[in-house]
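Practice problem: predict the structure.
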Amino acid sequence: MKQMKKSLWKKSFNLRTKFLIGFVTIITLITVLIAVAAGYRFVNDIEHSIEQNGRTLSGILARAGLIQAVFLDDQDLRSLVDSFVNDDAELIYAQVVIDGFEEAYKSLVDIELGAKFVSSGLHVDRDIYFLRNSLADGTPYIDIIHTINLGQSFISATEAEQNDPTRTITSYARLGISLGRIQAEIRQTILGVVFISLGAMMVGSILVFLYYQKTWKPLELINTAMQKFGLGETHVRARVHTQDELETVADSFNEMADAIVKKDEQMYQVNFEMQRANRAKSDFLAAMSHDLKTPLHVISGYTQLMLAGDGGQPSEIHQAHLESMLRSSDRLLEFIERILSFSKIESGEEPLDVEIISSDVLTKEAVEPLQSLAKRKELTLDLLVETDVGFYADPAKMKQVLSNLVENAIKYTLEGSVSVRVFQQDNGVYWHISDTGPGIPEPLQAFIFEPFGRLEDSQIKITDGIGLGLAIVKRYVEAHGGSVTVESLAGKGSTFIVCIPLEVELDEDSDR
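Answer:
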């Protein structure tokens, strides 16, 4: 499930999408922060302006109320209140109360103010109170109460009475400032900020699109072309015209792709010529083997007849010559068979005929026929099967692998012994073929599995063979998904190690 989510994330959010999301997010955050800061500053400025206006107007009205209390002339006071409260002003009511009597009052709304004010807390600025409230229709307003100092009612009061939070005030000027228009201005300002933000986002999106067209789109074209080319669509090229480094990269990729396609065409032509040459070689070897094997079989047959006494019993000297002829013809037939076998392996004309076989049975069938060859050289041939395990393989080819290795060990060992050890380790069957021969010098070990790679060392006196035995062994073992290696020191013998896995992935041309 986690892997699926990870793959969906990679598929849905590529580099372009991540860039666009990140860019738009940054623009949005910056725009929102600017809008919030501007709105906060605007609201603060409005509140400060209202506060200053309220202080000024309430102070004027309070001084007028004080003058009226001293000179007992309320006509001017009422005129002042009437001038404050009108349809064009933000004041919705004004009231002046002296010693609990309402001297002047005008209101544009239906509201009951009363003739006394009980403070709900300490005054905010000496003798001014700012209270927020709402009308019946929900319109917010600020109620400003400016106390009027008449001496007897305030100055004669004790300090504790002056600071009493629930003190009843009977002389004051009262104003109501509506916030309806202010709220409309705030909403209009916020709406303007929103439109400006949207405009900024649109401009930013256009800039992102232009940047994408100039940078990210060419990169995507180059990346897509590389991916398709890697998947085998060799005709794909990156068409980028930006007149900058990206166009240089695209041109370099296109040149590289053209060079690869040209090389592939050349390799295809070379491979075709090699296959044709290989078929010609196989045809030549098949014809040559037929032309060579037929007279060799005739020579071998007549030689055997002469040795059997057909036409008279040969003398001892003639018999020795005849036996030498027979051995030479047999060896020549063996060389021809190996050349044909290796040619079939190289051309893929010799698939595996796989079946389940026993490691014990296979090893004994390959090694026991060579006991006589070891005895003729007065060598000991030991066989140790530690584990009998069944595995899938071509019995004929695996038998040839073991026979070639054991026969080589006997051939190159002048005295001592040859041993074959079979065992299972991990998920494979192992054969160790060891001898006490002269060993293989380290510089020569890298070449012994190559075709026609014969040992040419002064300590090794064997001269027969054409150097295909170990090459055939290597090809057969690798066709089974296995490996063959050698461990050897000059003068201390050699050990060839063959490993065939129990769970083997065979060649595609193999018969399963």
